[in-house]
Amino acid sequence: MKGDGTVVGWGDAWPGVNDIPPGLSNVVEIAVGQWHAVALKGDGTVTAWGRPWEGQLEVPPGLSDVVAIAAGLFHSLALRSDGTVVGWGARSWNQFQYDFGQLQPPPGVSNLVAVSTDHDHSLGLRDDGSVIAWGNPFLTNVPPGITNIQAVAASNNGMALRRDGAVLSWVPFSSSGQFGVALNDCIAIAARYDSAAAIQRDGSVVVAFGSGSSTVVFPQLPNTWSVALGNDHGLAVFAPDPPDVTTLQVSGSNGVALLNGDVNPGGASTVAWFEWGTNTSYGNATPSIAVGSGLENVSVSAPLTGLSPRVAYHYRIVATNSAGRAFGEDSFFHKRLITLRGASVITNECHRPFVDPDASILGEPFALAAYQFSSLALRTDGSLVGWGDNQYGQLNVPNTAANAVAIAAGAFHFLALKADGSVVGWGRNSEGQASPPADLRNAVAIAASGFHSFALKSDGSVVGWGPASTLPPDATNIIAIAAGGSLTLVVKADGTVIGYGDNTFGQITIPASATNVVAVAAGDFYGLALRSDGVVIGWPSDDPIPPIATNVIAISAGRFHWLALKADGSVVGSVDIPDSATNVVAIATGFGYSLAARADGSVIGWGYNGYYGELNIPQNATNLTVVPPNGEVDQDTPGVYTLTYGGANFPGIADAVTRTV
Question: Strands, E, within 419-460: which ranges?
Fold first, then answer.
């Protein structure tokens, strides 16, 4: 039955049960027997169709004021508004008896509010919550205590739904259709022959096939409100939910930012898009993307180009369907910068064409990672450069780590997240910390600590390896993760933070102010959270966060000190910051030392510089390539000219710069 009052049928069409009567409309309820169907119309009349031989289509003339219907094997019942029941069908045919008295309740029963019928007996629910049965005498003995009932279902036994959600059943001589488990929080029931079904309040459907030993719990559905059983199949009706959405980490390279999100359509046709802009008012939207009408998460992405450097861009995913609109959490990112360098203003007086010999293209590192005494830089071409301690081969980057989009550092191992969602690990592997699961796919973020590692997947789940890497079942719908020496922190889609691990110093006791969180960082015995308003929250409170830690866009926690990168490119933290730490685009913290990548492509470091040369940053931490321009300018004609620069490592990235002659 559709919402417009029409009826659609499918399956075995014999003998005409799928031949819906022409013009049938205004239907408010349907019931199906073995080979016939009955429809109750909004005006209180009844229509029947299908097999006629047992009289099941012979609706009594003048039947009206019907408020409910039920269909059995070869018969039907109609409940009228005055609480009386009218039945028809079950006429003996071909020497078979079908009438066992199931058509009419005992004389004088007139206060019924619901009916149900099966092969040879019927159940009626009185307005006082009691139940009465009639028909086959083996099935009509309703036991004492069946009271306070809100619904009934007849099959080879009797079943009732109590007002408190408990399901009750009684079986005179068989265990067919019994659940075998106690059901105490249900909202609807159904029965057919030797099977029974119940909808639990969480939306799951429990079905018993035959005896209780065959009870099956079907996956949860959104807003399930009706269930029906056939001979060997069942149907559930659910109202669609508004879509469920999750904003995921931005990805992309070569001047393109790829906005990512997950959408669960909730059973209705859904479209999604991203809102984006330089603040949480957004002001821009990507084109709509159709994501279907299923019940599983669908990954959605949209590219952005033409972005400005050193600008924090906010974005969130939005989806809508017939049940409503849903908004993802706000997130933000910065464009990965490519700086083109060449000679400054030309002052040579000679009148001849020139080629700028000092032109260069520079792609600065857009990510840094450090933990103990080793550091790693991720360059814009996806290659990696390491320096510092190499006693476990952690600086020997494997070829399989090419095309990386994110990196993480453990005590003596590194991880690289690749563009295809796989993860590569190398370095010390004594506890399996550098060996991601072989089947790991769809990762969107990674984290590492002393001897354990994690990957956050696009579905919001977390995979861990190494000791102390198993998170509790509530680690779902995750959007960010961080690992420290004694703790692990995760951010859920609702902006809350959950901590796992040791709590000796209160390091996993999350403060109430840690709301609307978009990123976390973990040290040995403390945690940091970055809120969507740019404020940093820290705990425990022995070393409070200074008031200047606002308008922050990134955080990093070392073992015993921390840094925060502000939107203006400055850095604050729990240690002294050098004057050279300006125009910073990425930060990292190691064991007593700090690193910062600047917008001009340089990497600076400060703090401890011991035996392993933690601050001896190699020149190739940036990918600086000197290339000639492909255009010439005649200096005899002053003006502003555009010279186009090329670079094999940077296809598609902005490659033009103006020079004044």
Answer: 423-427, 443-448, 453-457
Architecture of the structural domain at 367-621 = 7 Propeller (2.130)
pLDDT of residue 365 exceeding 90, the answer is no
Average pLDDT, integer, range 499-516? 91
Residue whose C-alpha is closest to residue 370's, from 137, 203, 557: 557
Q: What is the pLDDT of residues 269-291, one digit of tens each?
A: 888 999 999 888 888 888 888 89
Radius of gyration, alpha carbons of the chain: 35
Report residue 313 as tokens: 């861009």
Decide if 27-237 and 367-621 have a common fold: yes
pLDDT value of residue 498: 94
* CATH number 2.60.40.4070 is the correct assignment for the domain at 27-237: no
CA-to-CA distance for 51 and 261, rounded, in angstroms?
Answer: 52
> What's the farthest any 2 CA atoms get from each other in the chain?
119
The model's pLDDT over 26-49, given as tens digits with 9 standing for 90+, comes to 998 999 998 899 999 989 999 999
CA atoms 304, 310, 311, 316: torsion sign: positive
**DSSP-based three-state secondary structure for 214:** helix
Q: Model pTM? A: 0.46
Q: State whether residue 273 is helix, strand or coil.
A: strand
378 φ/ψ angles, rounded to the nearest 5 degrees? -100, 120
Q: For residue 309, what pLDDT is reported?
A: 62
Instruction: Delimit the domains of the chain by residue range.
Output: 27-237, 244-335, 367-621
Q: Count CA within 13 A, CB hemisphere, residue 612.
A: 20
Mean pLDDT estimate for the chain: 80
Residue 631 predicted with pLDDT over 60: no
- Identify which of 329, 327, 332 has the alpha carbon closest to the alpha carbon of residue 272: 327
Domain 244-335 indexed as CATH 2.60.40.10: yes
In whole angstroms, give the CA distance from residue 357 to residue 660. 16
Q: Taking residues 466-488, what's their average pLDDT?
A: 86
Residue 356: strand, helix, or coil: coil
Return the SS3 of 137. Answer: helix
- Cα 311 to chain centroid distance, Å, stands at 28
pLDDT tens-digit map of 18-30 = 889 999 999 989 9
Dist CA 38 CA 55 (whole Å): 13
CB 417 within 8 A of CB 376: no
C-alpha pair distances (Å), 661 with each of 339, 367, 433, 480, 655: 21, 36, 57, 49, 19
Non-local (6+) Cβ contacts of 99 within 8 A are 75, 90, 91, 92
Phi, psi of 394 (to 5 degrees): -70, -10
Q: What is the DSSP string of 533-597?
A: TS-EEEESTTSPPPTT--SEEEEEE-SS-EEEEETTS-EEESS---TT--SEEEEEE-SSEEEEE
Confidence of residue 93 (pLDDT cuts 50, 70, 90): low
DSSP letter string, 235-272: EEEEPPPPPEEEEEEEE--TT-EEEEEEEE-TTS-EEE
Place of tokens 């802009």: 277
